[in-house]
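CORE FACILITY INTAKE
Project code: CF-77B
Contact: R.S. (postdoc)
Sample description: multi-component assembly, two entities in total
Requested service: structural model of the whole complex
Turnaround: standard
Below are the sequence entries exactly as provided by the requester. Do not edit them.
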Amino acid sequence: MNSYKEKLFKGITYTASLLAIVILMAIIYSLFREGLPLFKVTRLSDFIFGSAWYPTHAIPEFGALTLIAGTLSVTLGALIIAVPLGLGSAVFISEIASPRLREIAKPLIELLAGIPSVVYGLFGMAFLAPLIRDWFNLDTGLNVLSTSIILGIMIVPIIASMSEDALSNVPKNIREASLALGATRMESITRTIIPAAKSGILGSVLMGFGRAIGETMVVLMVAGGSAQIPGSIFDSIRPLTSTIAAEMGETVMGDLHYRSLFALAILLFLLTFITNLFTELVFLKRSKR
Amino acid sequence: MKKTYIILALLTLAAILPIFGKGNQLTCSGSTTVLPIAQATAEAFMDLHPEVNISIRGGGSGVGIAALQNGTVQIANSSRRMKSKEIAAAKAKGINPTPYAVANDGIAMVLHKSNPVKNLTIAQIKSIYTGKIKNWKDLGGANLPIVVISRDVASGTFEVFNEKALAGAKVESSAQLLASNNAIVSTVGSTPGAIGYVGLGYVTADVKICTVNNVSPSETTVKNQSYPLSRQLYMYTNGKAKGDAARYLLFIQSAAGQAIVKKQGFISL
């Protein structure tokens, strides 16, 4: 009887994990099946390095460089904002705050991660963008800076929470050894504890990067949507995700424009896949140690 | 945003209705601009003829036309005339697309309320959207950079604007592309140097309409086509409309149908 139950349980969990993998494979397969035919018409180098995105023009052009530049600029901007904030709050919660404050602060920061992205987008569009426009006396507040700030705030909880885990997991003997050798609290945090938690912190940053690069709603609402390579942080841009979201609704299934959007999705998939792979390797390295 | 909800609601309806429907099924899909007209007239028509069941989907003019070509819908809604390429593709499949005008619509050029510019010529609009004129002072306005706002290139409104105002020229790459008429109105309304274009039915008090070639978009100027950015909205059927489709199209073109068209913010035939 017991062994029967054991087997059933094993079977259910096995099927569940197998199904997840099968579905993932099916998604990847359909992505490539729908997207790759574009390259019968457009050269791969023109697609990646071409800077003219005119998919519905009489002579269509599919140059994704401006879209890639848009995605990378706001993702980088988000990291510049989120890494100091996230790491700072992680150090405070893990090393400096009293146990009671820690009990309150940690769940609170994790709660931030649960806010739907459309709410962040609305906030950015209705409050932050006009503010930025007036502060810097710009023509439009829908630009790289506003988008980076919103995306940055979105990924702070990811970086803070995962970095805090990594810092708390630093073994007690390392901390005590450091203090015993006469290091001050600050020296021991910056020279001993953070280096010891290095791979966990790096993993959290890569995780935040992956989240920011795939975010769609916020960039659709706040980035402005100009397909250009940004010359400054005050230019509007058009990331890969918002291009797919905005244009997919009105394309005809199977035509060239439809294929080109799937090709963009392949690019995006490869970018996030490589990031996740990298994250995985960083974590594997840590757990082996 | 509002449009998205309407589309979602319609999609749900479209999925549920066939379960309950006993009568004759009529399916149409296509332009999101024509969607409110199709929806409102279909409701009124089904009140008069409960035995007919009309389901309506959005998706865009191109999607509706493709669906008509594939024979999956009886009526394709389109905010533009079919392209010769699309007609040829339909004929190759044995489909003979026939247009029925259902309403008139004007594309209004909208500016921020503080902008003193009152009129733009088609040539000036083209220069603005292709990036040749970059400051309002070249157009008799203040010394203020122009923020060019356009619709997504996949929308029917963009296609008509592209054909009538830009003669097929490419919009400069620094133009902001927004996803809906509503988004354009709210962005232009809050950006002093902005210029945008929207369907006449979407203009609100937050923005200022500027005349084009000294003609203001009104019921008369759109009807007699003297306003340069006017268009007709169509429903396409395969061959001459028959049966329920014919009755539905006749209803839209009737006085009662056209009253609904006006109520939706469009201009009657």
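Facility notes:
- The beta strands of chain A are 53-54, 61-62.
- DSSP finds twelve helices and two strands in chain A.
Invoice: internal transfer
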